[in-house]
Amino acid sequence: IKVIMASVMPVCDLPGKAPxxxxxxxxxxxxxxxxxxxxxxxxxxxYLDYFSATADDKGMLxxxxxxxxxxxxxxxxxxxxxxxxxxxxxxxxx
Length: 94
Prior knowledge:
It contains three helices and two strands; from the N terminus they run βαβαα. The protein is mainly alpha-helical. The chain has a two-stranded parallel sheet. Strand 1, helix 1 and strand 2 form a beta-alpha-beta unit. The longest helix is centred in the C-terminal third of the chain and has 19 residues. The protein is globular and about 45 Å long. It starts with a strand and ends with a helix.
């Protein structure tokens, strides 16, 4: 089994939408992602970093990648897909 561990995605609060950050504090997401990355490295798993590719300069989900502050849109998946493909290739040794 080839293991790929993905980061937790950032969230953001959008005007007119339910706020996402109270239940998913950015500092908690960052801490969890550090743990996932370290765990993957120490156990020979591939770390797939969606966070860095989808976060803005404040560490929030880029607004153009979501309609609700939590789930990615097509634009978000367009960024995520090649990262997943690269991680799969890495895990398979390609």
